Amino acid sequence: MIDINPKNTLIRYNILVESDMAPEEMAEKLYPTDPHIRQIAKAVFEGDEDEVVAALQNTIDSGVDPLSLINDALMAGMEVVSTLYDYGLLYLPDVIISAQAMIEGIEYCKEQSKQVHESKGKIISYVVEGDIHDIGKKIVTVLLRANGYEVIDLGKDVPVEEVVAAVKKEKPIMLSGTALMTTTMHAFKDVNSRLLASDINVPVVCGGGAVTQDFISDYDLGVYCEEAADVPKIADSILQGLDIRKLRDTFHKH
Question: Taking a C-beta distance cutoff of 8 angstroms, is the pair 179, 128 a contact?
Fold first, then answer.
């Protein structure tokens, strides 16, 4: 089994010491050793969607199950990206480009397989009512899908009633909401109140330029997220059983 734990791999290859190395050189040390898998993981790292598909097809032609490549190759490539990002060696745009290539690969693997690939969980993503700035939401949606989650994207300027109705219908493991303007972020309060009134205790992960940790901490369901890259980690933590209090202990940084 390949050890892709960030701390273990970085210590093993002494990457923290080799700060003069380019990220591409560091990534070469972290890719899986199997030639086919390595080619796919490298294509994900480089964000080359065409090469991802070509490498996948080459591997599938050799007899490998398409769905197995989602975790063994595509996710392995994204782990390399995440590892270098966590240590400040890549930037968010690099992560987004790789995530898009990975999503393309996931869809291709699904198309090539007769089996159904189950998502890790369902998440609702939206921009609060009155706010049309959706770049942050788009980034979060890409990252969640790249990490194996089914995302119900409600879009921008979403009325509170529509958010609550979607939660009741879809029963997600969490909501991911963004707000850029101070005049719109109070919609989080209305979503929180409406959900509690319906006895729904789903975490509402909130972020965006206008949002602060103190503001979100006032709401029973609120979990503040400072960086888009933390949203999949929060989702993973929910699957591991962390409740809202423990999510705050883990992800509230101030």
Answer: yes
Angle of helix 135-146 versus helix 231-239 axis, rounded to 10: 50
**CA-CA distance, 29 to 9, in Å (whole number)?**
9
User: Is residue 34 one of the residues assigned to a domain?
Assistant: yes
Domain edge (last residue) among 86, 112, 138: 112
- One digit per residue, pLDDT tens: the chain, 254 residues? 334 444 444 444 455 545 568 899 999 999 999 999 999 999 999 999 999 999 999 999 999 999 899 889 998 999 899 889 888 899 888 988 998 999 899 889 988 987 777 789 999 999 999 999 888 898 888 889 888 899 999 999 999 999 999 999 999 999 999 998 899 999 999 999 999 999 999 999 999 888 999 999 999 999 999 888 899 999 999 999 999 999 999 999 87
Pair (22, 83) in one structural domain = yes
- Contact criterion met (CB below 8 Å) for 234 and 216: no
- Whichever domain contains 164, its CATH number is 3.40.50.280
Asked whether residue 1 is assigned to any structural domain, the reply reads no
Burial of 19 (0-12, 13-18, 19+ CB in 10 A): exposed
Q: Contact, 194 vs 211, CB < 8 A?
A: no
Residue recorded with tokens 């369901």: 221
Partnered with residue 224 across adjacent β-strands are 206
Encoding tokens for residue 84? 């270098």
Q: Read off the pTM.
A: 0.72
